[in-house]
Amino acid sequence: MRNKYLIIATALSVLLALLLFYAGWKFGASSSHADKGPDVAQVAPVPADAPPAGQQIDALRRGVPIDQEAPPPPMAHVENADIKRVRAYPMQPPTIPHAIDNYQVDKNSNRCLLCHSRANAATFQAPPVSVTHYMDRDDQFLATISSRRYFCNQCHVVQTDARPLVANGFRDIDTVIAEDKQGSP
């Protein structure tokens, strides 16, 4: 007997949903036709020098029309000079000045720590991992690298000879102070 009321309630719900759908379809279609009047024709004018439809240029495509495919740019070469670059913005993680092809960095092993761990940095003449990498989320120091800082490539990237995508006028604070001292009497 209980199922009988459930079946009736379900059937009434489906019937009501179909009725609402039909009413919305009918009234929506008639009102949308009524709305299409002179307002639809009032579209923003197209500039005279604009390319024909389908020929617009996307700024990120570097002048290649959207309906065409550009040849890919050449692959950037990894710089392997072991020379630190200046940072491009404040608090930027240092970039990696050497190739890291075939470095294993996973949950079982981190090849970066062979040279950059605090114990081995002097032996390999590599900069040691920052003390911030040994802190947990509560700023408590740990004996080993924090799991939040274990995967180096999340923040640190190799240096390449790739052309920058955008111009960068960043000057670090030391440069600004030196310029101010030279400019003031």
Structure description:
By secondary structure, the protein is mostly helical. The protein has a domain at 1-31. The protein is built from 5 helices and no strands. The chain has helices spanning 2-35, 38-41, 112-116, 121-124, 173-183. 3% of the residues are buried. Residues 37-43 have low confidence and may be disordered.
List the helices and strands and how they pair.
Layout: H1 2-35, H2 38-41, H3 112-116, H4 121-124, H5 173-183
Query: If you compute it from the alpha carbons, what radius of gyration comes out, rounded to the nearest whole angstrom?
Result: 32 Å
Tell the overall outline.
elongated
DSSP strand count: 0
- Helical percentage: 25-40%
First and last CA, distance: 99 Å
Indicate the mean pLDDT. 80
Order of helices and strands: HHHHH
**Sequence stretches where pLDDT stays below 50 over 5 or more residues:** 37-43
Q: Roughly what fraction of the amino acids lie in strands?
A: under 5%
Please outline the major beta sheet. Answer: none
- Please tally the helical runs, counting DSSP H or I stretches of 4 or more residues: 5
Judged by helices, strands and strand pairing, the structural class is mainly alpha
